[in-house]
Each structure stands twice: as C-alpha cells, then as structure tokens.
Amino acid sequence: MDRTRETILQDPGVLPPAEFRKLMAGWPTGVCVVTSAAGELPVGCTVNTLATVSLEPPTAVVSLAGNSATLGAVREHGLFGVNVISHRDYELGHRFARVAREERFTGVAYTWTLSVPLLDVAHLRSVYRVEHWLPVSDHVLIVGRLLLALPSAEPPQTQGGPAVRYEREYWRLCPAEEPAN
Length: 181
Prior knowledge:
It contains 5 helices and 12 strands. The chain has 181 residues and is an alpha+beta fold. A 7-stranded antiparallel β-sheet has the order 3-2-6-9-10-5-4. A 3-stranded antiparallel β-sheet has the order 1-11-12, with no helix packed on it. The longest helix is centred in the middle third of the chain and has 9 residues. The chain is globular and about 55 Å long. The relative contact order is 0.20.
C-alpha cells in the first residue's frame, strides 16, 4: 500500500472540508426540502440526505445541520415534512438553502397537513413523526415514521422527474436506453 493512502486511513482529518465536499459532489443525490412548524410559522431547509430505513413500518432518515432552525423546530414539534423537489422546480432547492430563513416561504404555495407545511409543487410530499435522533459530528440524523404520503397529482413526465444534484449542479433524470440486441 502506498504511504499517502496509509496516512489518510490512519488520520481521518487529513482531507480538508472543501476537498471532502468536492469528493462528495461526484455522488448524485436527490434534493428535498424538510419542513416543520415553529409555533404557527413554517420553517424549512434543503437537504440531500434522505434514505429509507425500513419498509415495515415505513421509516426514513434525514440529516440536518446541528445549528439549523429547522432542526430546532423539528425537535420542538416532533413532526417533519419531506418535500421531494421536481426538476421543473429545482430553484426551490436553492431558495431553501440560500434565502434568509424568514423569507423562504414568501411566494411559495404550501398546505398545512397534519400541522406540517408541505410544498404544493413538490414531486412527492410526506409527513413523519420523529422516532430517534442521532447526533453525528455537526449534524443530527432524524429517523422518522411515515404518517402520510402524498404523491404529486401531476405525472412525472410533466415535472421532469425529481431534481438531482451532481457536481454541484442540478441535473434531470432520463430513462436509460434499452441496449441494442
């Protein structure tokens, strides 16, 4: 094994955060907005960590920054929404990541569902009850049990499918071509 690789494996702090971000940009990921309520106000942020934990019962995990206002609201409320963004509406990913917290919902249509704001244009919308918390470095993994799932009323073709991030850009999914026989 070469000496550089041995050093990296022995010291996990060798790769600076900017380099790790660049490395992980090579992994395509879906884009969703996690929402909750802070009192009577909607809160939300863009995340790219959403994964199935269990099918029975239906359980998923999301990851939020430890200093996130959305995390604080989820902790207080005990419920959160997952809004999978369609490619057509990919700018919502930017909006809920970069716009000031108090302005993120301005001009964005949403519906209160089980006391959680869900984005009307989302490709898929769902509400979860928090089951577990797991602090990991500067983030918190939130494991939630599905309470309600609302697929979009529009067919995926009109939305362009879900928004996908790859190499720090938004991409559109397209079906794989059938191999020639």
